[in-house]
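Here is one chain, start to finish.
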Amino acid sequence: MLLINHRPISIWFFIMKIIALVLLLSFAQESQAKGIFSKLKEFKSRIIKGKKSKNLPSTSVLFLGDSMSMGAFGSTLDSKLRDAGFEVHTYVAGGATPYYWLSQYQSISSDIGFWEKTPKLERRLKKIEEVPKVEDLLNHCDPDIVVVQTGTNLYSSLRSKRREESDNIKLVQSLCRDMAEAASKGGRRCYWIAPPESHPERFSFELQEQMSSIMESSTKPFARFFDSRKVTEFIDPYPETDGIHYGPTEAKAWAEVVVKDFIKYAGAEAVGRKALDPNEPFDNKLLKIKKAEPVDPSTIVWGEIDVQVKLKTKTVMPHVKSVTYRSCLVLYEYEVIKVDSGYYPYETLRIAHFGVYDRKYTSKSRYRVGYEKAWKLMPLNAYPSISRIQMFDDLEIDFDKPIYFIKQD
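Its structure:
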């Protein structure tokens, strides 16, 4: 029997396996090294790209609001926009309307709060003597988009009894149009946030619908209009609450919906600025400074004012014997010449004077129409004991204006 020696063949196969394994490991290590190097290059490029993107200017936003933005709604909107990468300049004034922001109207103070937050500072004040004008803020902040939250304080103008309804509508239309136009100057974009739903016993649904319609048609040529009534519902009781301002939970939810719509608008429809209209005037106009009307009187905290006035109308002085007690008040109406300090937006002012004191006529009972005087005044209700005294008043009914009394030492 022939015996064959297989040992050399086994050794040869073993050597071939070793060589194949070495080659395989070498190839894998080379591929892995290339993969790591490739990933490092990719990671480095991302870092460089990230650094470059950080150097690019972010979209700048000027956010203007009233007392609706003083709490959770405003703070949520402000923080969400900053988190999304916008450069935000926030200015919120309690009671504000276009009267406050537009330079064509006299400067107005706010006694019910002011909030300013920019990339450099933040401050909250109980009172500010002059709410900044939108034209000045555009020059200072140079925003790409202007967000305007307003409207609730215009209901008083829309339902005023001092004018015909048609004139009320024209007034609100012009205020909204002028504000949106001013905000969009220089090719800027304007995003208009209309009021949320109010309690129907505070403002009827018909009035609210009318306000939304007026605002939308007036701002449409200049702004993106967001109707907050479509995404809100006022659920708190009235008159236990004011029927206007939302609690933190509801206000935050409202803001989050607005932010989503704004980011979509800013990203897709408002990239950069519009081409400038060659007919748009940029010269400094000589504006006639008008006297602003106030906000809803129920939202105003009336305080001390220092004014110069001229007597316009007097209540007929009662006979001493017709006075129930030893003294009485009489109501006079004055034309406002100048407001030296404090907030008073009307053109006329009513002051209660002692016409009879201790059964005798006072010097004020003898004031004649045209008499001019400067006084420091306080609301009559600041003096409870005086406000309970019998008052004679035959002036035209006007529930909007507060009654003042000469400040007591």
